[in-house]
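User: Here's a chain of 454 residues. Predict its fold as tokens.
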Amino acid sequence: MGLATFRGGVHPFEGKELSMDRAVTVLKPTSGEMVYPLSQHIGAPAKAIVKVGDEVLVGQKIAEAGGFISAVVVSSVSGKVKKIEPRVTAGGAKSISIVIENDGQYTAVEGLGEDRDATKLSKQEIRDIVREAGIVGLGGAGFPTNVKLTPKDESKIDYIIVNGAECEPYLTCDYRMMIEEPERLIGGIKVMLQLFENAKAVIGVENNKPKAIEKLRALVKDEPKISVEALRTKYPQGGERSLIYAVTGREINSSMLPADAGCVVDNVNTVMAIYDAVCKRTPILERVITITGDAIKEPQNFKVRTGMNYNDIIEAAGGFKADPKKILSGGPMMGQAMYTTDVPVTKNSSSLTCFLEDEVEKNPESPCIRCGRCGEVCPEFLVPVLMMKSCMNGDSAGYEKLYGMECIECGSCSYICPARRPLTQAFKQMKRRIGEERRQKAAAEKAASGKETK
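Assistant: Prediction complete.
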């Protein structure tokens, strides 16, 4: 029987050998200043509930959700609120942030870390705990987890899919956690199964991680509602749509949510965070992050506190061999280039990938030769060569007619293109432009409707 997979995709250089055998090291902050952006998730920014001069504790809520699609922010240290001001984040933009001076004492709120019997909790209590713990998708997307766990009709959810693919090159933080703390993962899955009686859970792991597959299968051999699915190693196997199709054979598009296909999909570390919050009374205080690339002296996986400065983590990995030409927040396929490492770790930080050479700079763009490779690898059955033509002409209507809004921005087309055209970058910009056009149109229609009613 063949391995579960999807149509299209690419096989980039993995680079995982740099850090996959490096056990997770706990790294506490060495600097006094901790920075907590109020935008660490998709949706509305959180709202600060502390002020300058306030004393805070480990595990204390310092910002509340700013809307339904938003997330709580919790302090990972004890200390005093020093400032509330804009700070640069890994994405390059500035976000209003709460700056706390770490007192080094790590004094915690009462009850933090204590055991709790999840089986005695109601569904609503579990969802409330997840919301107050500030849990978001820790695979990078940052979607508030309590919203995912609250679909319109929970009875229609028949699959809980745990994303253990970690298809992004160089990243190994999910792999290490599946190897080192699989019991937490299974514990989190059991909590999620309490919410969806009709569901079974499937852990999807790419077959380049045989140790993780073996260990997880041994743990769930007596669990009738939990299984492990070996996936073909191929990028973007861990993309939400690709993973749903590989595991269930069901398809979704941009107008649908996974719940519309009867699925709830969460990353390995997100599921572990659910276990910590519900069973150990511990909100999001830490996350595992991979520091890697050929510019790093000692590529490693660290468990670090949110709010910690990236420079401290780089130093713990031995620093740079030489000045890197390219630094990415994330991996080389979907990561974002950074112009500074003086930024804080946030909930959705997954890795820092540093290279001695800039492959984009070394391989400049040339004219399209219409080879068709971009269409062959697109997991969404799109025609990137024509979409790019629409982008170059500023033709948003033409882009939409080509179903360009279905692009998942995986970067497969850019990777395979022999002309090194910045396809994915152009598609991101066009999608933002179309989104803004739609918002302006909706606002104009609303204003016109208001005038007519008068």
